[in-house]
Amino acid sequence: MIKDREQKTEDRGQRTKNGEKLTPDFYFPSSGTWRWGGLLLLIFLLYLPGSAFGEDIRVRAAVGNQEVYVGEPFLFQIQIEGNDQPGKPDLSALSGNFFIEEQGGQQNSSTSITIINGRMQRVVKKGYVFSYRLTPRRAGTLKIPPLPVKVGRTVFNTQPLSINALPPEKNEDFKLRMSLSKETVYVGEPLTLKITWYIGKNVEKFQFNVPFLQDNPDFEFANPQVKLDQNKKYFKIPVDGKEIIAQQGQGILEGRSFTTLSFAKIVIPKRSGTFKLSQAQVFCQVPEGYRNHRQGFFNFDEDLFNFGPEKVYKKYVIPSNTLSLTVLDLPAEGRPPNFTGLVGKYHISTSAVPTEVKVGDPITLTMKISGPSYLQGIPSPDLNRQEELQSRFKIPKEISSGKVEGKVKVFTQTIRARNEKVTEIPPVEISYFNPETGRYEIARSQPIPLVVHRTKVVTIANAEGIGEIPEKSNPENLPGGIAYNYEGPDVLKDQGFNPSTLFHSWSWLGALFGPMVFYLICLFTIRRRDRAKADISGRRRKTAYRKINRGFKKVKNRINDEPGYYEELIKEVRNYLADKFNIPAAGLTFSEVERLLANNGVDGETVRRLKHIFDTCDAGRFGISGSSREDREELLSTAREVTKHLEKWL
User: Are 193 and 278 within one domain?
Assistant: First the structure.
């Protein structure tokens, strides 16, 4: 038997006429495990993506316009070819000449397959694009130096660029004014910055740029509470990349009547000094007329089938006035030990529920603080630092962050009486600096009467549910005695090794074929993921309907919040349409949607219903529509039907 096995092993090789053994061109070891390992290695090498063997990396910068006005934002991109997972670029070198607003990044990958003479070649191109909006700070030729981008372990630099920034032009049809509620304040004292745009012509697109509000470490900024008046119009406008509620009105400036658009920001100084508020700007486009859309039969930059007139716009950048603000230090003399930085005049009132308890029972203490118009920044009172209160009550370290309700900020805290001798909740104190008197003052609430009863002490003998301890059970003797032990060769079982038995064992089969199956599953998953990454537009289209159905649930949860409901609904509809057409959702208008739907052959009734959704949501977001809950439920139902119908077309 041994000789036969050796002979079979020898015959696997090839021999020359002289009997010399030759090594086979491709040889698997005799072990089944190594045979499968070699096969898997071959499959792995054959299916390795082409990018694994290296791909040229190119990094470059691009701008949307090379000549802009000071305060006019323009698009700036950093484009990477050959890699879709680069590091975030360092744009700190641009902060001196530009205000920087991130627009996000996205992969820019594609896959192509070519077949030549029966041979298939798969080419994967990877890329990534970082987008920013830059706004020039000053006039002149502004340099964009080479910017470093880390791709893998290598740092690449973009090519240098330059931008020509023109100074703003004076215009009598538009004015921009800034004003402060106070010109001299103390550190920590809130004041209001109001910006008003006087509009003498119709405008379509606009963007505010307020340098004072951007990356200013000397101040904190917050949005004031806006109480909507049904008789006034409100809009959400873009200011430095964020949305702020602005109010439309009428105003007179320099003897001329204007339509006004105004908004406010709360400003809280963090250090003393004299500060200059540089000019704010608003960039806008004003329609100036129409021109023929096509310039000639061979102008390939124009839409081939659009022969209608094109609206002509003129760009304006309107600068504001400058302001000066003086910030004074708070005096050190007379500062209370529990002073938390409140500046203004404040009042506090308290209430408690219940007022008759036992020792250790929870008592809900409610504190209401009123003061200046800006209440969001009021910190919670530290009750553990108030000795009289802390000595009588157990007070957790945690306290609610507080909620602004009208003209007061409300805090709640749970306290527990330490003993039955407690007869009242003592006054709660808050210290503040009064800028009118120039002194530190303390606001106190009124004491709250309290009845505290002694708690009954319960011993183990009084505890319910405890009875006699059951006796332990003793082991019992087996009636038949000790089981008999069998002996002899007849009881032995043949356990000799037989290779065929391996295929009857799940553990051996798993050990043999498990790695191969696991590898193939991983290979399939990775290749499927790579294809999905490359086909970004396809993935967006496939998941759009599922995403908007999830979004409709969020919309329904806000059906009682009229402005929030319309804001959420139009956002979900825009995201759905943007995913279907593979375009950005930000700023997507119905006119653009209408053109895309027409190109895809969507029927007019569906387009009309979609326009109704856009118009109704705009009315609800920017004003007081006065719609009922039933109206909002019907609009949500219409949106569901429209998107379901669009699935058949898109």
Answer: yes
Residues 185 and 323 reside in one and the same domain: yes
Give this prediction's pTM: 0.57
Tell me: do 268 and 398 sit in the same domain: no
> What is the per-residue pLDDT for 10?
41
Cα dihedral 492/498/500/505 (nearest 10):
60
445 within some domain = yes
Q: How many CB atoms lie within 10 A of CB 582?
A: 13
Kindly state the helix (H) or strand (E) to which residue 646 belongs, with its residue range: helix 629-646
Report which of residues 3 and 144 the model is more confident about.
144
Domain total in the chain: 4
Would you give the DSSP letter of residue 214? S
- Is 488 inside a domain boundary? no
Distance of CA 402 to the CA centre of its chain: 24
DSSP string for residues in 235-301: EEEEETTEEEEEEEEEEEETTEEEEEEEEEEEEEE-S-EEEEEPPPEEEEEEEEEEEES---TT-TT
401-410 contacts at long range (C-beta below 8 A, 24 or more positions apart): 402/378, 404/225, 404/375, 404/376, 407/370, 407/375, 408/368, 408/369, 408/370, 408/375, 409/368, 409/369, 409/370, 409/375, 409/376, 409/378, 410/366, 410/367, 410/368
Same domain, 151 and 179: no
Confidence (pLDDT) at 107: 85
Cα distance between residue 615 and residue 364, in whole Å: 47
Residue with the two structure tokens 């809900």:
364
Question: Does 530 fall in a domain?
Answer: no
Please, what is the end-to-end C-alpha distance for the chain in angstroms? 72
Say whether both 150 and 197 belong to one domain: no
Q: Indicate if 574 and 625 belong to the same structural domain.
A: yes
> Domain holding 131: CATH number?
2.60.40.10
Q: Give the residue-averaged pLDDT of 139-168.
A: 92
Cβ atoms within 10 Å, residue 392: 20
What residue numbers bound the domain in which 277 lies?
A: 174-327
Of all residues in the chain, the percent with pLDDT exceeding 90 is 40
Among 138, 166, 194, residue at a domain's last position: 166
Task: Express each pLDDT in 391-448 by its tens digit.
Answer: 999 998 877 778 888 889 999 999 999 999 999 999 999 999 999 999 999 999 999 9
Coil/strand/helix, residue 23: coil
**Between 472 and 46, residue with greater pLDDT:** 472
CB atoms within 10 A of CB 326: 13
109 and 188 in a single domain? The answer is no
The phi-psi region of residue 245 (left if phi > 0; otherwise alpha if psi is between -120 and 50; otherwise beta) is: beta
